[in-house]
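W.,

You were right to be curious about this one. When I first looked at the sequence I had no strong expectations either way, so I just let the prediction run and decided to look at it fresh. Below is the sequence, 94 residues in total, followed by the output.
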Amino acid sequence: MAYPKPGEYYLADRKIDEIIDEKMTVEMGAEAFKQYFRQDNFYLGRILLRTGDIYLESGNVEKAMDTYKMVEEIFILDEELASQAKKKIQELCK
């Protein structure tokens, strides 16, 4: 039997989105990768993808490319995430 999720769940989910999308730094992304790489973490792929975006925004194309390639390779079973990373790699190769 499925139970409805409490309101706090949705609040927490929005807060996580805000942190990843708006407040995360490269350092935070690198630390999350080190801490959660060998653990099951639903957000790690998104965190790494965003870390690549932050590298790109700061002008570090090489690190952005490396990060996107890592996402594509590590999260190959997550088709949506791997596709996003591949698209970003293709855009950088133009």
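Here's what jumped out at me. Residues 7 and 13 are 10 Å apart (CA to CA). And, maybe more interesting for your project: Residues 26-93 form one domain.

Coffee later to discuss?

I.
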